[in-house]
Design goal:
Elements: H1 3-57, H2 74-82, H3 86-93, H4 97-105, E1 108-116, E2 119-123, E3 128-131, H5 135-138, H6 148-156, E4 157-165, H7 168-180, E5 186-191
Parallel strand pairs: 1-4, 4-5
Antiparallel strand pairs: 1-2, 2-3
Helix pairs in contact: 3-4
Organism: Caenorhabditis remanei (Caenorhabditis vulgaris)
Protein name: F-box domain-containing protein
Domain F-box: 69-107
């Protein structure tokens, strides 16, 4: 063998060793990523299991299981949100803009929404929510409904039945505003005027 061939052979061996070392590091990094992903999936399954148990009990979500919430990808957050009751969704919605967008992107099915002087009641299969001090019932300066909660419900809820128990003059303008809006999530609405 010539010196030139020996140098080339030595260079090739060096390149092979570098490639083997790089491949080994890459394999170790991939294994580490698999472990992290496995831990995330395991944590997500535990959270979903706890949420399912809570959904059966119809209790509020235990916030201790949400300690690593910011580390979850949006898909996992969406799955968790879909299993939350109405009040928990509202609370999560108030935490950050990103969570607000996620909560708003998942409609909430409501069997019945009642509007009356005492506030707004929301009923679903697994949940009952009463907001007693709603601005809508106490807004006397305008005839339109001033409730942010009601606007949220009408925009993001899938409402089976909407019942309104308010004075006629407040309802007439409110109904006109609803007709002009693009809210199409109500299947049946009934008006029961009071104080005529």
């Amino acid at each position: 063998m010539t010196e030139n061939s020996a140098a080339i052979l030595e260079e090739l061996r060096s390149i092979r060793e570098e490639n083997q070392e790089s491949f080994k590091k890459l394999t170790e990094e991939m294994e580490e990523m698999k472990k992290k992903q496995s831990l995330q999936v395991e944590m997500m399954e535990r959270i979903i299991e706890k949420l399912e148990k809570m959904a059966v009990k119809t209790e509020s979500v235990d916030l201790k299981i949400m300690e690593k919430w910011n580390e979850f990808p949006p898909e996992i957050k969406m799955e968790c949100i879909s299993r939350m009751d109405f009040e928990t969704r509202l609370n999560l919605r108030r935490t950050a803009h990103a969570e607000r967008s996620l909560v708003d992107s998942r409609p909430y099915s409501m069997d019945t929404v009642n509007m009356c002087n005492d506030g707004i009641e929301v009923e679903s299969e697994t949940n009952y929510f009463l907001h007693e001090t709603d601005k809508c019932a106490h807004n006397k300066r305008t005839s339109s409904c001033g409730s942010k909660l009601l606007a949220y419900i009408l925009k993001h809820g899938l409402i089976e039945r909407l019942y309104v128990f308010l004075p006629r003059e407040k309802i007439d303008k409110w109904v006109e505003q609803l007709k002009n809006s693009q809210i199409d999530t109500i299947r049946k609405a009934s008006h029961f005027p009071i104080g005529q």
